UniProtKB/TrEMBL annotation:
The keyword Metal-binding applies. One of its GO terms (biological process) is putrescine biosynthetic process from arginine, via agmatine. Mn(2+) binds at H105, D128, H130, D132, D209, D211. One of its GO terms (molecular function) is metal ion binding. Pfam families: Arginase (PF00491). InterPro entries: Agmatinase-rel, Ureohydrolase, Ureohydrolase_dom_sf, Ureohydrolase_Mn_BS. Binds 2 manganese ions per subunit. This is Agmatinase. PROSITE patterns: ARGINASE_1, ARGINASE_2. Its cofactor is Mn(2+). Belongs to the arginase family. Agmatinase subfamily. Keywords: Hydrolase, Manganese, Metal-binding. It comes from Vecturithrix granuli.
Length: 281
């Protein structure tokens, strides 16, 4: 299995973006397996073109390095938080942006927390089928279903922008309506452009849960949710976000085992390519 993502540079010192695998799915409650995604993405990454016709850029000219996977020999949140925090703070101190590969959505919490230390005015854009705003889930405070609630406690609910949400509890939807910038059910380009204009100049972290895509396009995920967006709709949204000051991002919730065709994996890889190119500014 290849140790690096397609076109990654060996020279850590000269890279501007670090690709970091976080193979963690300890709180996955329905269909686990996202811990295998980082290596699966690397394995199939050579099957795509390095050139993005959407951005007119090429990965071969992108100054990114593959930092490998976080070592998680013990799968609990305390270990995850410490290991991720140490690595991300190191990368940020070296003036590198981080693109994290999950893993389940809980991996976003320690990454975003580390970013918040470097960017006190950090804004978070959240693309997902699920609100992830529960106070706790199955008795756990730290879970894939609580991750955005926990991040909001660090950066403030007023700094969170949620798009594409179509599943959650009554309480989560009420909390989103009242506390965050909550735009459920779609990735409306007009709304996104308005948000982009509001966030000009602010540091923005983007968290992309791949189940925002409809299962017809992306079946390989732990909690599929009908009624999602197409790949083209998601891509158009990402290209609008390119206007922002993106300082970091993550892609989470690919579960390769649930799509034997590997179309979901290839879709994830193409989105990794686009985000790497967006971050390399």
């Amino acid at each position: 299995m290849p140790k690096q993502f397609f076109c990654a540079r060996e020279e850590l010192e000269t890279s501007r973006v670090a690709l970091l695998g976080i193979p963690f799915d300890a709180t996955s409650s329905f269909r686990p397996g996202s811990r295998f995604a980082p290596d699966h993405i690397r394995l199939y990454s050579e099957g795509i073109e390095s050139y993005s016709p959407y951005q007119h850029k090429d990965l071969a000219e992108c100054a990114f390095t593959d930092a490998g996977n976080i070592d998680l020999t013990i799968s609990n949140f305390s270990v995850l938080r410490e290991a991720v925090h140490t690595q991300v703070i190191h990368d940020l101190s070296s003036e590198k942006k981080v693109l994290a590969l999950g893993g389940e959505h809980l991996i976003s919490l320690p990454v975003a927390a580390a970013y918040a230390e470097s960017y006190p005015d950090l804004k978070l854009i959240h693309l997902d089928a699920h609100a992830d705003l529960r106070e706790d889930y199955l008795g756990e405070k730290y879970s894939h279903a609580t991750v955005i609630r926990r991040i909001s406690e660090i950066i403030g609910t007023e700094n969170i922008y949620q798009f594409g949400i179509r599943s959650g509890t009554r309480e989560e939807f009420a909390f989103g309506d009242q506390a965050t910038h909550f735009y459920p059910f779609s990735l409306n380009p007009a709304i996104i452009q308005t948000v982009v204009e509001q966030l000009q100049g602010s540091p923005v972290y983007l968290t992309l849960d791949l189940d925002v895509l409809d299962p017809a396009y992306f079946p390989g995920t732990g909690t599929p949710e009908p009624g999602g967006v197409s790949f083209q709709e998601l891509l158009q949204a990402l290209l609008l976000f390119e206007q922002l000051k993106l300082v970091g991002a993550d892609i989470v919730e690919l579960c390769p085992a649930y799509d034997r065709s590997d179309v979901s994996t290839i879709t994830a890889i193409k989105l990794v390519r686009e985000l790497l190119l967006m971050l390399d500014e």
